[in-house]
Specification:
The protein is an alpha/beta fold. It has twelve helices and six strands. 43% of the residues are buried. Bound molecules: fe (ii) ion (FE2). Fe (ii) ion binds next to α6. The site of fe (ii) ion (FE2) has 7 residues, from α6.
Length: 294
């Protein structure tokens, strides 16, 4: 929901989701801001944020977190990027309980100036990009219902914190993600927005990286999915292509099946540098448009 790659699925979860945590006047006002962000009177992205009312997590929610954590972390020790694993250590990602965002931020912010900010639900693209441009990650705070533990059509706190946030502790990835947000804010061209969504999908969500001669997962959609992380590394049905930004931006994707095509980075510097070049191109395009309009 609070996620650039999930723009296509804004509906709420079915099942026994703890809706109490994301309802009420504060959440409604924040969602109204998100839905209208960029229109007159809705220019303060911080008004889209809410508090993570920690008492709202039930014992079953905590148990769900522990089950998800345990069954994935052992696999990731050998199969996730060292950058992810190092970041998970830095933010003290733990099986003990659903992470309080304040604890994560106390470790993250001094290092890379990134923070996780709670949001009430789906964020439209502009609001999502505005958060990233400020080094703020809009974070879903609810966790999936225990009976839906294996399949969830949209992000929850396990996807957003366990899947995404460890990489925000890496200075190179941290810079890439902010540049992505800033660049995305410079364009209103639907074709360009589509290309940016593909870039996000094939890197932040489903990226692979080669480390020490072995392909590892780093994209949050793989990190947080026991089924697809294994499939992405071992299936002969997956076309693992070398990362090339323009080729990535030309590759379409489908959201509700295992990805048949994935892109493999050689380093996060490669991603950051490619993004800087792309951002420069978008800025030049925006500048030409401004001059034509003047
Ligand atoms: Fe995501």
């Amino acid at each position: 929901m609070a996620d650039g790659s999930h723009h296509q699925s804004p509906q709420k979860f079915a099942g026994s989701l703890n809706h109490a945590m994301i309802s009420g006047p504060e959440a409604e006002a924040a969602q109204l801001c998100a839905n209208n962000f960029g229109k007159p009177g809705y220019n303060d992205i911080t008004k889209c944020y809410i508090e993570q009312l920690y008492a709202g997590y039930s014992a079953e929610n905590q148990e769900t977190w522990q089950i998800l954590f345990d069954r994935q972390m052992a696999f990731l020790q050998d199969n996730a990027s060292q950058t992810y694993l190092k970041g998970a250590g830095i933010i003290n990602l733990s099986r003990d309980r659903v992470p309080p965002l304040a604890d994560i931020n106390a470790r993250l912010h001094p290092l890379t100036k990134w923070q996780s900010r709670a949001v009430p639900g789906y964020l439209p693209a502009k609001a999502f990009f505005a958060c990233l441009a400020r080094r703020e990650f809009p974070t879903t705070i609810v966790i999936r219902p225990k009976e839906s533990i294996d399949y969830l059509p949209e992000p929850d706190i396990f996807h957003d914190i366990f899947g995404h946030v460890p990489l925000h502790a890496d200075p190179t990835f941290a810079d890439f993600l902010q540049t992505y947000g800033k660049a995305a804010l410079t364009t209103d061209d639907p074709a360009e927005t589509e290309r940016l969504a593909r870039l996000f999908w094939f890197t932040v969500e489903f990226g692979l990286i080669r480390e020490g001669g072995k392909v590892k997962v780093y994209g949050s959609g793989l990190i947080s999915s026991p089924g697809e992380s294994r499939h992405s590394l071992s299936s002969d049905q997956v076309d693992r292509r070398p990362f090339d930004l323009d080729r990535v931006c030309d590759t379409s994707f489908e959201i509700d099946k295992f990805q048949p095509v994935l892109y493999v980075l050689e380093s996060f510097e490669q991603l950051r540098d490619a993004m800087n070049t792309y951002a420069g191109r978008l800025l030049a395009k925006a500048g030409r448009k401004d001059r034509a309009a003047a």
